[in-house]
Amino acid sequence: MSVNFKVKLLLPVFLVALNLMASAVDSYAWWNKQHNWDGKTPPLNYIKRTPGFLGPNALPVPDLNDTKINFRTFVYAGVRYQFDNRERVFNPEIGIYFPIQKNRIAFSFYSRLFEFYNTDSVLRDKRFARDSVSSGVSKSESFLNARIRVWENFYFFPDFTIEFGLKLNTGKNLENARHTNAPGYWFLGNFAKDIYTKEKFTVRIISMLGGFIWQAGDNQQNDSWLYGLGIQFKKKSTVVLFDASGYRGYRNNGDRPVVVRLKLEQELKQFNYFVQYQRGINNFVGNGIFVGLKYKINWIDTKNPY
Question: What CATH number corresponds to the domain at position 146?
Answer without folding.
Answer: 2.40.160.40
